[in-house]
Design goal:
The protein is α+β, with helices and mostly antiparallel strands and 607 residues long. 44% of the residues are buried. It is built from 16 helices and 32 strands. Strands 1, 2, 3, 4, 5, 6, 7 and 8 form an 8-stranded mixed β-sheet that branches. Strands 18, 21, 23, 24, 25 and 30 form a 6-stranded antiparallel β-sheet that branches. A 5-stranded antiparallel β-sheet has the order 17-32-22-29-26, covered by helices on one side.
């Protein structure tokens, strides 16, 4: 078993972790493991005092990060406290901040992937896993950037225990407090303070959301929606980066200097009024903020449903707090990559600074919304986005990319996502995900009901002439829906059953597998477009039929909704309404949507 464990560390590229952190197996529960491990006696006392010994002794899937006695003593010293001073509330916070409980799995080190992995603790706060190399060249695993795992993968009957050398304690700092703690970010910190965003970003939960009437927290089909968590991500340039970009500033006129610097991209309205959203300093700061909290490992999907050859090129688009202006994030991560190769890079070692409701990431390059570059280069391309990618609520409440949650087929209340996603009382919404299916990023929304009617606020692309498409998988349990773009009917109702038994057998689609053509499917692509369809992209992958691209799955299709001219920046809406007379059980498959500038269609790639 020890040999097998060593091989598992090789598989996760962590074979440099020291021998004393290798895998062990015990016949214990998580609670009894702590009881019988001398270096965890303090933590076990916390379990007993809080009553959580019984919790961690029951059957389940727990991932536990208990701190050693030495770590707890150091934590007490930092707080100026003695062991006897700790309250039950203090202990409960430590225990819950160290514990992950899911319904389906516990997390071994082989489940920690990428630069950073985000998990949700029982304290309802993020536990962030990252890999670093120490001064001896050994690979180490850190929890929340500070707690080193000193003994990993101790499997117990109800989970796994990873012993750490620091107490895991969620940050209570605001964004402004955290920025002000970093001397290298002093200029951005002053601009952020003056912009007024810190006051807007102080809440943990949406004060305008009260939860659904008659909510039953014991009913798993309803999810857990008593509250709606808020969160943000802030990107910040160091003083050095700003100086190199041409910012000239002295201590006496920092704000006016930043304002003058920002005028180049953000105009000259409302000068001196830094909290006014028209002000150039305010707009400069706004473009650095996303209304969802993400560490560097949770910005771009590179999981199983992403074709292996495409993972290094994967991307996501997010709207910033500068209204209707987006950033593009590519795997790395890097921001706003131009055709000439220039992009804005993150300093991964300095990033992932946790606040009470989000993260701060440090930039190595200047981040601005340059109108010419963004509209003619960075955003002038096919833009594909998952339905789950739009509402920030699905990220902030640990729903998006949470397979443990989504595999249990949950839903969210009608008003949970505000204007981003709305559905009527005649709709039944099901959230679902599986790596065994054929979805973009593995997840999907299913909307059914005899009177279903839902609206998604799409991503706000720059002004231009776009073709819009809907990606889905045809099945005989799908239905017929009328589509709308920005409130206007989009053609005739679409029948999502067409092609369910193989689009190659349906002349309304005309699908032919690439290998059955003499030109690798080029002419067939043109013919399908004439019918209003496209094959799925090659960048999407499924394990079905031995593993293949979705382009080779004839039931996986894109419907061409139509071409639309957007003359200004603003929100755009996709709506679907049931037109099926065969009963309320048939579904609409909400998977992904694409924009593409019309002038790029002729030379579009297959990814």
């Amino acid at each position: 078993m020890i040999v097998a464990a060593a091989l598992s560390f090789v598989a996760c590229n962590s074979d440099d972790i020291k021998d004393d952190a290798m895998y062990t197996f015990t016949g214990e529960t998580a609670a009894s493991f702590c009881q019988h491990t001398p270096e965890l006696s303090r933590f076990y006392e916390m379990l007993v005092a809080t009553g959580d010994e019984s919790l961690l002794g029951i059957y389940g899937h727990f991932t536990l990060f208990p701190p050693t006695n030495t770590a707890i003593d150091a934590w007490l010293s930092e707080r100026g406290q003695r062991w006897e001073d700790l309250t039950i509330e203090d202990m409960q916070k430590v225990v819950y901040s160290s514990t992950i409980r899911t319904g389906a799995q516990e997390f071994l080190t082989t489940d920690f992937v990428g630069n950073a992995t985000s998990l949700l603790s029982m304290q309802d706060r993020t536990i962030q896993i990252s890999f670093v190399t120490n001064d001896k060249g050994q690979r180490e695993i850190l929890v929340n950037s500070i707690a080193r795992i000193v003994s990993a993968d101790n499997e117990v009957h109800n989970g796994v225990v990873h012993i750490v050398d620091h107490v895991i304690e969620p940050s209570e700092a605001t964004f402004l407090q955290r920025l002000c703690q970093q001397p290298s970010l002093s200029i951005f910190a002053r601009a952020f303070a003056a912009s007024g965003f810190n006051d807007q970003m102080s809440d943990l939960y949406d004060p305008n959301y009260t939860g659904p009437a008659g909510f039953d927290s014991e009913d798993p089909s309803q999810g857990h929606y008593e509250h709606c968590k808020l969160g943000w991500t802030v990107f910040a340039e160091t003083d050095e980066v700003l100086h190199q970009a041409g910012l000239i500033v002295t201590d006496s006129d920092t704000l006016s200097a930043v304002e003058r610097f920002a005028e180049k991209w953000y105009g000259t309205e409302a000068l001196g009024r830094y909290t006014d959203e028209r002000n150039p300093l305010h707009r400069f700061v706004a473009y650095h903020i996303l209304n969802r909290q993400m560490n560097t490992g949770s910005m771009v999907y590179t999981g199983f449903a992403c074709a292996p050859t495409y993972r290094s090129k994967a991307y996501e688009y997010y709207e910033t707090m500068l209204p209707y202006r987006m950033i593009e994030v590519k795997a790395g991560p890097e921001i706003n990559r131009q055709r000439n190769g220039h992009s804005v890079h993150l300093d991964n070692e300095a990033s992932n600074m946790e606040t009470m409701n989000g993260y701060i990431h440090v930039l190595r390059d200047l981040l601005v919304y340059d109108e010419d570059i963004m509209t003619s280069d960075v955003m002038h391309k096919r833009i594909r986005f998952d339905f789950y990618a739009v509402p920030p609520q699905l990220t902030n409440n640990h729903i998006r990319w949470n397979w443990d949650y989504l595999s249990n087929a949950h839903a969210f209340p009608q008003d949970f996502c505000g204007d981003y996603f709305k559905y009527n009382t005649g709709s039944t919404l099901t959230l679902w995900a599986s790596d065994g299916w054929t979805n973009y990023q593995s997840d999907e929304m299913l909307i059914a009901g005899p009177m279903y009617d839902f609206t998604l606020r799409m991503l706000p692309v720059p002004p231009g002439n776009y073709e819009i498409r809907l990606g889905y998988r045809a099945e005989n349990w799908r239905g017929i829906a009328q589509l709308f773009i920005d409130g206007q009917i989009a053609g005739i109702p679409v029948d999502l059953t067409i092609g369910y038994n193989g689009a190659e057998n349906d002349p309304r689609i005309g699908y032919v597998h690439d290998e059955d053509t003499s030109d690798d499917g080029i002419e067939n692509d043109k013919m399908m477009r004439n019918h209003g369809y496209m094959k799925a992209p090659t960048s999407m992958y499924t394990g079905q039929e031995g593993g293949k691209s979705l382009r080779d799955m004839s039931a996986c299709l894109r419907i061409i909704i139509g071409q639309y001219l957007f003359q200004s920046y603003g929100p755009h809406y996709f709506r679907a309404k049931n037109m099926d007379d065969k009963g309320g059980g048939r579904q609409f498959h909400a998977d992904y949507i694409e924009y593409i500038p019309v002038d790029l269609i002729r030379d579009e790639d297959r990814e």
